[in-house]
């Protein structure tokens, strides 16, 4: 039996997938359009840019492990700037 060691990055990604799926499960109880908007609004309002960057990394890699509603709501979720971007107003 293989015991693969997960790196902190893998653990963070796995937790993020669980969180996104929990929100999706709740939103699936609503009419479809309302659920899509509710999921995207929740992530936009409460997830910091780092978390949204990680979510988009999962989505860009095919969305493995994410519920269909999360994948479908992706266009409604604000994609943050890359992590290496200088703050607004600074001279890079």
Q: What would you say about this model in short?
A:
With 92 residues, this protein is mainly α. The protein is 58% helix and 0% strand.
The total count of strands amounts to: 0
Instruction: Report mean pLDDT, rounded to a whole number.
Output: 89
Overall structural domain count: 1
Low-confidence blocks of residues: none
Distance between the termini: 50 Å
Q: Helical proportion?
A: 55-70%
The sequence of SSEs as H and E is HHHH
Alpha-beta content class:
mainly alpha
> What is the strand content?
under 5%
Number of helices: 4
Outline the biggest β-sheet: none
C-alpha geometry? globular
Radius of gyration: 15 Å
Topology, please?
Layout: H1 8-27, H2 32-46, H3 49-60, H4 68-73
Helix pairs in contact: 1-2, 1-3
Give structural notes.
By secondary structure, this protein is an all-alpha fold. It has one domain (9-76). It contains four helices and no strands. The N and C termini lie far apart (50 Å).
List keywords for this structure.
single chain, 92 residues, mainly alpha, 58% helix
